[in-house]
Amino acid sequence: MSGGQVAEALREGVHKETGLTCSAGVAPNRLLAKVCSDINKSNGQFVLPNECVACMTFISSLSIRKIGGIGKVTENILKGVFGITTCEEMLQKSSYICALFSRTSAG
Question: What is the pTM of this model?
Answer without folding.
Answer: 0.76
